[in-house]
Amino acid sequence: MSLLRIENLTIRTGGQALVKDMSLVIEPGARVGLIGESGSGKSLTALAAIGLLPPGLKPEGSILLDGVQVIGAPEEKLKALRGRTAAFVFQEPLTALDPLMKIGRQVAEPIARRHRRDGRSAGRQEIVAEVRHYLERVALPDIDRIVNSYPFQVSGGQRQRVAIAMALACRPKLLIADEPTTALDVTTQAEILELLSTLVREEGMALLFISHDLPVVAKVAEEVTVLRRGQVVEQGPVRSVFGSPQHEYTKMLVDAAAAFDRALGAQQ
After folding, report:
1. Cα–Cα distance between 47 and 44 in angstroms, integer?
2. Based on C-alpha coordinates, what's the Rg of the chain?
3. DSSP string spanning 132-156?
């Protein structure tokens, strides 16, 4: 059974369709990239997949997440899917993290919820040990300082690692990463991409990686779906789609990425 199967998804607001007849399949352990310009519907598709569309947006079609129909499902049913089946890493963790709560406590919360979800209680020492484990898992330095810091007291790259640790703590089958490196410098971006690739492989998770950046997607994904103005224009293996694009929009993206690489090389 597919982990995520989206068929003919349309997302409307008023009389406008923001996503149109979108279809996407993610199998267990697959690494899929979703790429397109700003406003193409990438993030809306990901939010719809876990039932988190903002008010006023109406999804139509079918979204099966681990065999459960998301569209029209009651909130209690969706809550059971979030964390256990799919966990989300947002673009800017400073807005996703609670600014008034220390990082150690924020990582502890999904751990405690997971234990309750699995029908068992965990003592404080066990949870503290797990907090340290997941922060170590994402290669954070000086963990004693990190757990006692507020989000604004650590760097952007460290906040993103904390957000990934919180997602991992849920032990999901699918990790959804929405532009997780956009706000980071080039060096930190490369480190986060390498970290995500390693974690997905070692934890046996599937990955839905959302970006507007072709080289970034090529580093972490095996399959790619290209969106333009809410519609799929091309899908397939990364090597085929980026190596021999068929749609004019994909060709434009590939040519733009190649031109940028040439300009960057000329400056070095």
Report:
1. 5
2. 19
3. HHHHHHTT-S-HHHHHTS-GGGS-H
Instruction: Give the whole-angstrom CA distance, residue 135 versus residue 161.
Output: 8
The model's pTM is: 0.91
Binned at pLDDT 50, 70 and 90, residue 98 comes out as very high
Beta bridge partner(s), residue 174: 86, 206
For 101-140, b/e burial (b = at least 16 CB within 10 A) is ebbbebbbebbbbbbeeeeeebeeeebbebbbebbebbeb
**Beta-bridge partner residues of 9:** 22
**CA 88 to CA 166: how far, in whole Å?**
9
d(CA 143, CA 219): 28
| pLDDT per position as a tens digit, 202-254 | 989 999 999 988 888 998 999 999 999 999 999 999 999 999 999 999 999 88
Q: How far is CA 256 from CA 4, 9, 39, 267, in A?
A: 31, 29, 18, 17
Looking at residue 130, its amino acid is E
Phi and psi for 10 in degrees, rounded to 5? -125, 135
- The enclosing H or E element of 51 equals none
For the chain, how are helix, strand and coil distributed in percent, rounded to 5?
A: 45, 25, 30
The helix (run of H) or strand (run of E) holding residue 173 is none
Residue where the block lists tokens 């700003």: 38
Residue 118 CA to residue 96 CA, distance in Å, equals 25
Query: What is the residue type of 83?
Result: G
Please give the order of strands across the beta sheet that includes 68-69. Answer: 16-26, 4-13, 58-65, 68-69
